[in-house]
Specification:
- Helices cover 67% and strands 0% of the residues.
- The protein folds into 2 domains: 99 residues, Orthogonal Bundle (Rna Polymerase Sigma Factor, Chain: A), CATH 1.10.1740; 84 residues, Arc Repressor Mutant, subunit A (Orthogonal Bundle), CATH 1.10.10.10.
- The chain contains 8 helices and no strands.
- It is an all-alpha fold and 202 residues long.
Length: 202
């Protein structure tokens, strides 16, 4: 029953987002404010995982919504609005990192975001992590390649389907799946290499 309620709430949320997009395209400023309020927090956490700095993440969020405001008519519904939004944010994160000539070496995940690990699909990371090991896991994620890390963040913490991830990363769906599965294998190897005692993490 709980799952049914959650699914119904998710559908209602999607319907609301679609309606806000339609109304904003028609010039309704209130609809834009609703989109901003709905996505601001999750987009901020997402940006933090990539740029690892509060002010930088906040700047990415502001620039993302500025692009949404000025280019909303470029959204043609080929993906969900959320996917289109995150694609803009990822490109801005990459531009920001490149401009600062810095490497993405750390993922910052706030405690509330960890709850999203309880995703509705069978999450292979759950086999690697207990509550006490969450910080260890986050440190290991930092060691992944940029593509693998982004794929893991989108799939696990944002619960994004591989089809949508492929759209964001501008690659084939099969390639997105390869990035994810390679990331999981890499994480397993990292845990094995770093496990101080037998059976600690795996």
């Amino acid at each position: 029953m709980d799952l049914e309620v959650k699914n119904r709430e998710k559908i209602n949320s999607i319907n609301s987002i679609d309606q806000w997009v339609i109304e904003f395209k028609e010039g309704n400023e209130y609809a834009f404010n609703q989109l901003f309020t709905h996505f601001q927090k999750s987009l901020y956490y997402f940006a933090m995982r990539l740029v690892t700095n509060h002010s930088d993440a906040d700047e990415v969020v502001q620039k993302t919504f500025l692009q949404v405001y000025t280019h909303i008519h470029n959204f043609r519904g080929e993906s969900s609005f959320k996917t289109w939004l995150y694609k803009i944010a990822i490109n801005l994160c990459k531009d920001h990192i490149k401009s600062k000539e810095q490497q993405v070496t750390k993922v910052t995940l706030e405690a509330p975001s960890l709850k999203k690990l309880s995703a509705p699909f069978e999450n292979p990371l759950n086999k690697l992590m207990t509550q006490d090991q969450s910080k260890v896991l986050l440190n290991k994620i930092n060691l992944l390649s940029e593509q693998q890390k982004t794929t893991v963040v989108l799939r696990v913490f944002e619960d994004m389907p591989f089809k949508e991830i492929a759209f964001v990363l501008q690659c084939k769906e099969s390639t997105a799946k390869v990035h994810f599965h390679q990331a999981i294998l890499k994480l397993k190897d990292l845990f094995k290499d770093g496990a101080p005692q037998k059976g600690d993490l795996l």
